[in-house]
Specification:
alpha/beta, two-stranded antiparallel ribbon, homodimer, 11 strands
Chain lengths: 337, 337
């Protein structure tokens, strides 16, 4: 399946296809110098498989985790590009999760003022979320995604076969972001989660969720307005994530908690039922004070209003300016008793 | 005088006006957090004058010269932005030469994926050349402008009064780039150089040269084709510059040599006469071997053809694919006997 993304003068496609990695050169122009950026935990056969399809391939492998989205690691990638004499006509391919997608996109967008970037996300989270929309990033001074660019890839290759080796908790982590898109934008996608086993329905869920995200970013590349709906569950979710140790709570799990916190009534009941299927906790331990501190720092505007994304009915949403106290009150409902 | 630059969805103006620095807030939105990036050799009163017009101003002063266009100095600028809590709605203002323009533009383009950038160039070279066109850059692994983005400023403020303190050789350095634009694109601008004292005609030369550069980049932002004409004199010029110690030959002086090398007959005679007025040398010492090595490394394609910009008649030019030997033969004519 080909999902078109058409942002200003950058039109490209997200290819969703089982076995796409095996025939990547059908979709990506690999007949040139390719810097293949990947992570230590990515199965070697994916990397080897892509490498064989390239005319000239140089592999850079970074450590897993957010620590690799740093200025020094970015410098290492740039150094590899310089060392191997990459020109404006060559390209960078990221193979892995959101970390190498964000880092690789940033490197590609800034090497010689921009070379072609291809993304082959291999986690559910990066397939449905971070690979779509052209946000590139590294962290800086301890703040996530502080440095980056808007830079669209030339093509995104989503191969559900790469998910076979992914731990179940990681699959659920990504499905939580797909569920978020269902909550704000698609009652029919939500019903797949509700009526079927989401873990068995990846071939239906992935293209649906990618399509929603693509539609949103096409209408609002730089988060002027509509793109804010993608932040549903993220104000609280991101604040909780900040207060936890790396890996303690996955991103999607935190977003799920954030969604639970800001919903109520029937919407909340249905959401809780799906999260149970996904084996995602809906209450956890945290310090309300620490979470609120992170939330206000994140929004950088203590005292003023914050744009909340609210879902009154599954499949649609509205934006509302609320005071920080709105979130503080809601936190109570997800705190483990 | 206002010169419009309209590149895709980024329309902005270059303001050319004596005393513009005194009333910068008439053109720039300074009623927010402003990171003012400047160099040690910039007169303190320019900085103070801008600072007074800002709601909240934080000054970062870097060392003069290319050494400041580095990843560590870029990191310092980003750190200052984080430290003072800059948001997407704040801005960065560069005050100085091409170094802070390039560095500041790169920082602004990548902080939180892009904040507003204003440029107040205070050298002839940066006023007529580097501030126009949206190329941002830092150097990497010893290669100039290896890392950067295309990012248009919100406004460029050119105040010819800032040139009063500039050494005569630096003025000539910038005028050489303006002369280059005259050579390829404007016989009438060339006549100003020919018939008057260029040092006394800055108010006529600056807007003309800026207008030519703006026209070119509007038609070809990312150097697909037309923008190549801006490289007239640069293939040899840049190669010579690379082989010299920093400050030994100024950029404009090297470009002038490059222009002399690739012209002949009447065109060359007229060019030599103007360069004499500008007190720019038209023959120097260099190692042909070293210059050719730099030239081929720069173009990254030994053996293949290079696009040469050629001027057969002043005010127009053509692009021609030539072998590297073309440049090698021409070098002879600018080598000091």
């Amino acid at each position: 399946m080909r999902i078109p993304v058409d942002i200003k003068d950058h039109a490209y496609e997200v290819i969703v296809e089982r076995g796409a990695v095996q025939k990547a050169d059908r979709y990506l122009d690999l007949g040139r110098k390719v810097l293949l950026l990947t992570e230590v935990n990515i199965p070697a056969d994916y990397v080897e498989c892509i490498r064989k399809q390239c005319k000239e391939c140089h592999v850079v492998t970074v450590k897993e985790g957010e620590q690799s989205k740093s200025l020094p690691v970015y410098g290492e990638v740039m150094h590899a590009l310089v060392e191997h004499g990459f020109t404006r006509k060559d390209c960078l391919v990221s193979v892995g999760g959101g970390v190498v997608g964000d880092l690789g996109g940033f490197a590609a967008s800034t090497y010689m003022r921009g070379i072609d970037f291809y993304n082959i996300p291999t986690t559910v989270l990066s397939q449905v979320d971070s690979s779509i929309g052209g946000k590139t990033a590294i962290n800086y001074d301890g703040i996530k995604n502080m440095v980056g660019t808007f830079y669209q890839p030339k093509c995104v290759l989503v191969d559900p076969d790469t998910l076979r080796t992914l731990p179940r908790r990681q699959v659920a982590n990504g499905l939580a972001e797909a569920l978020k898109m269902a909550m704000t934008s698609s009652a029919s996608l939500f019903r797949i989660f509700e009526e079927d086993d989401p873990f068995m329905q990846l071939d239906r869920i992935l293209p649906e969720a990618i399509g929603i995200k693509a539609d949103v970013v096409m209408q609002d590349e730089k988060e002027a307005n509509l793109r804010k709906i993608l932040n549903f569950g993220h104000t609280i979710g991101h604040a909780i994530e900040t207060t936890k140790l790396p890996g303690e709570c996955y991103h999607g799990e935190c977003v799920a908690l954030g969604m639970v916190a800001v919903t109520s009534g029937q919407v909340r009941e249905r959401l809780l039922a799906v999260l149970k299927k996904l084996e995602i906790p809906t209450r956890i331990d945290f310090s309300t004070e620490a979470v609120m501190q992170a939330l206000l720092h994140d929004k950088k505007k203590g005292g003023e209003s914050i744009t909340a994304v609210l879902v009154d009915e599954i499949g649609s949403c509205r934006l509302e300016e609320v005071p920080p106290s709105f979130f503080e009150e809601r936190l109570h409902s997800i705190l483990r008793a």
